[in-house]
Amino acid sequence: MKLASRIVIAMLALTAVAACGIVTTLTVRRGMEVGRPDAVRRGVDIEAPPGFLDDRNNFALDFQSPGRARLVSHEDCEICDGEEDLARAVIDEELADADPEEREIWHAELKQHSPETIREILSLRRHLAPLNSSGAVSDVQHSSADVAPPRLLKEAVPAIPLEASADALNLLESAVDAIRSGEQVILNNIANAHTVGFKRSRALFGDLTPRQLTLPGQIDQRGRPTTTGVALGTGIRLTATQADLSQGRLRHTRQPLDLAIQGNGYFQINEGTHFSYTRKGSFGVNCNGEIVLTSADRSRPLEPAITIPQDTAKIEISSDGIVSVLQTGQSQMNQIGQIQLARFTNAQALVSVGEDRLEQTSGSGNPFISSPGQDGLGELRQGYLEESNVEMAEEMAELRRLREHLRALLQLQAESSRVP
Fold it and tell me: Maximum CA pair distance of the chain?
């Protein structure tokens, strides 16, 4: 309770000092005219307001010359201690009804002021609530009916709730969901960094439709159109995952049925009822001699179909897709077919169906079929495979950036949802 008493008394003293700022200034000006001829002074002239003291009370002001002041050291001032004793005497006289602890607090706050200023400041004490024995503020006694009720020393400030509005929480939730989706796109790129023919995807974000409070161009009170409006954002979302169709590096494998496309185009794969398309050129031969896309679960023939004779000793595939074989006992290569490639007006709209196979959509348009090296299609490279176009360093950097963003959003979400 003593600690509470000291805190409240100190607040009373600070309030009284602030309320008597004008009175103090007038009193100090009177002090400027009086002067202190018997003091031993040293220091330099400064431009400072009358009554200035540093925060350690190391200097008092000499008001010998009106409008100017000199710093006077307490060590060199013979009357400083006397003034402090005079201030204590005035405080003891004015606060005769207070306990010693309260008088000591007032003395610490007012010891550098003149007796007139101290009396004027302490006169306000009559309008402030004194402490009772329990440490609580007692009822205020007014000296007259004209005196307004005292205000509290510290106005009650409404606490800012930690709970955010529903709109803010929804905004944060949408941002977290979008960033997590973008993180999944990058992780998929990293996972397929060594997948033949894989094309990386990038996440594209967009803001949700803002809530428009006022529209630009509205007429203000003076009849002029406004230049801007007020719109509140509602969050973000993952708007698209866009495939990066750039060329991957070609890796030499020396396998006769490994094919890479240098340039634009896709291999056609017969799915039975429809076709799929791929840049994955790791082909093999099934038991029927058909060239098929390598797969663990089923056989997917190349389209148009090409069958390799069983007695084939050598296979050659030219850059324009012509397949030739050298059969056992023969000295010349025989042409057995030609590989065709497909291209699309909007290859970005092809849909992945797994195992690096794509299928057409209404957005991609119908495929244009032609021979390699013609009509804007790339050429074939036998004995090579196209690696994925994923750059690990770039993907890891982007992943770190997204995760930093996600951590910040999750922290804001936790703070906004915390119950006070």
Answer: 133
Instruction: Round to whole Å and give the CA distance between 57 and 45.
Output: 18
Q: Domain containing 201: what range?
A: 161-209+230-247+388-420
Do 304 and 283 fall within a single domain?
yes
Q: Does 352 fall in a domain?
A: yes
188, part of any domain: yes
Q: Are 264 and 376 within one domain?
A: yes
Residue type at 325? V
Does residue 215 fall inside a structural domain?
Answer: no
Let me know whether 295 and 235 are in one domain.
no
Angle between helices 2-19 and 21-34 (to 10 degrees): 70
Question: What is the pTM (predicted TM-score) of this model?
Answer: 0.58
Q: Is 380 in the same domain as 268? A: yes
Asked if residue 392 and residue 243 are part of one domain, the reply reads yes
Tens-level pLDDT at each residue, the chain (420 residues): 455 555 555 555 555 555 555 444 444 444 444 444 443 333 444 444 444 444 444 444 444 444 444 444 444 444 455 677 787 787 777 777 777 877 777 777 777 777 777 777 777 665 554 444 444 444 434 444 444 444 443 444 444 444 457 878 888 899 999 999 999 999 999 999 999 999 999 999 998 888 888 888 888 888 888 888 888 888 899 999 999 999 999 999 999 999 999 999 999 999 999 999 999 999 999 999 999 998 888 889 999 999 999 999 999 999 999 999 999 989 999 999 999 999 999 999 999 999 999 999 999 999 999 999 999 999 999 999 999 999 999 999 999 999 999 999 999 888 877 745
